[in-house]
Amino acid sequence: MESAKLFELITNNTKDLIVLFNCDFSILYISPSVKRLLGYELFEIVGKKMEDIFAVEEPLRVSEPQILAFRPKNKTEKILLESLIKPILLNDKVDRYLGILRDVDIRENLKKELEAALKKEKEINENKSKLISMASHELKNPLATISSSLELLSFYIQDDPHIVKPNVERHIEKIHTQLNRLNEIVNELLTMEKTKAQNQDVTLSSFDLITFISTLINDSFSDADQAKIKIKCKEDILYINSNKILLHHIFKNLIENAIKYSKPDKTKIQVLIEVGKLQVDVSVKDNGVGVNPLEKDKVFDQFYRSSRTSELTGFGLGLSIVKECASMLDAKVTLKSTIDKGSFLK
Questions:
Q1: Burial letters 262-286, b for 16+ CB under 10 A, else e
Q2: Distance of alpha carbon 42 from alpha carbon 32, whole angstroms
Q3: pLDDT value at position 57?
Q4: Is residue 312 over pLDDT 80?
């Protein structure tokens, strides 16, 4: 008796549909919530099958979740209900079926909208990547032509007595400077797209991290800049399994940023390598302008320039490349910074 009262209390107050089916899936009992959800009275449903009342087009499945479209009374538009039907056994034989059906119409429609939005965003990103890659490659040739023509102009003016060489050379130098800036933009854009294209094909190899970073510094930076960089590690040799190409992009950009945003007369860059039980932490520390606390979450976004670096040249791609490469290696990049005291990227 108590069980019957408890069952009645549950079925009368639940928002879900509780349905008891005969073995032929005709409805033996359905909870009163069917009135609110689908607009039918109990007497209109009992003894009939779902497809006869609600225009359900798929056969009911047992013991696995199923999303079905139900048509409410006097309406043409259907709503989605998620059903789970379990057999009720009596003497090891199926005697009836118990089903619980939940309204998931809003959830499923939101899911479809989200999937459509994600698909559209993916298409936009793919088109953007194609455009950037194509434009970058197309810019390479004219930039190279302009650069070689400037070299020739510099050569020709040496033998022409009618040209005021200092004035012409000054303008040629300005053009060279802007060409170098354009080349940097193109190279960084190509690097960004290349790392995205390689996302599915990251190969790892074993190498000494300390030697790798030392070689990178020697090959990528001038003697004057090398003198400002110090590697600190308790180990003399440290072998890791990683991808050299991605690490090259990460450390080169971090060290370039550290040099660029440090005080010119007091530049001091530290590359700290710490060995933990399960990981190796590499930090690049500078004594530069620092980052505004309100901007910390934005500095890794593409083309974002900190308000404190507006007077310095840059395109806002370096740290976004670092983040992209790190994610491909399942690594994390964190930033600690104090205004006018420097930044600590780990």
A1: beeeebebbbebeeeeeebebbbbb
A2: 7
A3: 86
A4: no
